[in-house]
Amino acid sequence: MIAFEYVEPESLEEVLALLEQHGEDAKVLAGGTGLINLMKQRLVQPAYLIGLRQLARSPELAEIRPNGGLTIGALCSHRTIETSALIQHRLPLLATTFRHVASVRIRTAATLGGSLAHADPNQDPPPALLVLDARIRIQSRHGAREIELGDFFVDYYETALEPEELITTVVIPPQPADTGTAFLKFLPQTHDDYATIAVAALVSLDGDTIAQARIALGAAAATPLRARAVETALQGQAPTPQVIHAAAALVAEEVDPLADFRGSVEYKRDMAVVFTQRAIEQAVTHARGASGNV
Ligand SMILES: Cc1cc2nc3c(=O)[nH]c(=O)nc-3n(C[C@H](O)[C@H](O)[C@H](O)COP(=O)(O)OP(=O)(O)OC[C@H]3O[C@@H](n4cnc5c(N)ncnc54)[C@H](O)[C@@H]3O)c2cc1C
């Protein structure tokens, strides 16, 4: 690791001022589970490291609040989200998804903002947040902006975040009535590995017709992605096994997986179809069984 200066500001204003002052030479450090590895491999070499630890009690950055939907502070750890009674009650999809991340030790350190800014396409939270239509609030010294999560991921480990910007909160809007969700992580190797393929599905029913379907995948391309062709094929249809099977098959054309030690491109493409079908089936079952349970 190369030499760097470490600072730990006590306020958000100070963090934003330092980010503006040092620009591309600076990086914020949240849980450190992603950044420190990249620094050890010399893939990222910031001259200034801005620790966010002192902001861990800031209401905006560290709290989960109901507001019609929910807002979740960027410094909330994965473990906090997994175990939050509010999340378990209002958005069980997120509790389930965060429970699938690595080990308790990693989940206790890693934060929501860190997992989004890190932008490793194999991570679990992005597909679940994509099907919830999450938006990200970003702040710099010059003000705040909000963007759709779908516009945030630009490429492999690349986001729309500018060097002087900080993610402050993630906003989850209210979800449609009679909605069911599912998150499936295909883990053929060890329990604490990254996904070979991950699929999140949200299905809302109007009687026995699919009023809305949102499907997103992780570990399936250079960025997390929404499977729009699958969604369109489901919309307005009765969720029969034939309809779900035909719609899920379309995901093969939407994914663009990278070959690695978890599998070849062809294998991951096949698994994307299998797990998309299963995730849709589970989401439909949940939509039928528990009205409004997302
Ligand atoms: C062994 C191991 C296994 C893992 N397995 C999984 C897994 O299976 N699934 C999964 O989803 N994740 C997994 N993770 C975690 C994941 O890969 C990232 O390490 C983690 O999400 C990063 O969060 P962090 O808070 O530690 O971020 P940090 O490491 O502190 O930061 C990561 C990046 O985000 C930036 N950043 C942090 N916070 C903010 C903010 N608020 N605003 C702007 N930029 C910010 C930093 O500058 C840095 O560029 C694993 C990690 C490890 C070490």
What is the spatial order of strands in the main beta sheet?
A: 4-5-10-6-7
- List SSEs in N-to-C order: EHEHEHEEHHHHHHEEHEEEEEEEHHHH
Shape: globular
Count of extended strands: 14
Low-confidence stretches: none
Q: Provide the β-strand percentage band.
A: 25-35%
Give every kind of bound small molecule, once each: flavin-adenine dinucleotide
Whole-angstrom Rg: 19 Å
Work out the count of structural domains: 3
Please tally the helical runs, counting DSSP H or I stretches of 4 or more residues. Answer: 14
CATH class of the largest domain: Alpha Beta
Second rung of CATH, namely the architecture of the largest domain: 2-Layer Sandwich
Which structural class matches the secondary elements?
Answer: alpha+beta
Mean pLDDT rating: 95
State the CATH topology of the largest domain: Uridine Diphospho-n-acetylenolpyruvylglucosamine Reductase, domain 3
Through-space gap between termini: 43 Å
> Helix coverage percent of residues?
25-40%
Largest sheet: 5 strands, antiparallel
